[in-house]
Give the backbone structure.
Amino acid sequence: MNELVTSKFLFAPVQFADRFNEGGPFFMSLILICLLLSIYFLVRGFMSFRKNPSLSKKMLRLAEDSSLLGLVIGFFASVIGLITAFDSIEALGNPDPAVFAGGLKVSLLTATFGLFTFIIVRLDILILRWLQAADKA
């Protein structure tokens, strides 16, 4: 049992890379860029919320926009994945459930990563807003 648990944790980066490639490297990379930009904007916002509140608010807005962009890209890629899955089913004529399930999985991976990006950044945005409000009081 311990070997199974250990092997899952040791190969987690490999599984993440596999899921990243399954979701489509182009759209998944765009979502990752949005996540990294959001984190950068949040770090700058946290670092400057006492020294320069206006810069902190600007970074907060940029983090909101970039996280929302990651979410929208995820759902856009999901719709494209669904269209691709339906095209392949239409071309085959006789729909194989495995083909359909594979298309659904690919389309859901981008949406999931977009949602993950949005949720992580949104939690940090709430913390930064709370700190900004506490600093004013």
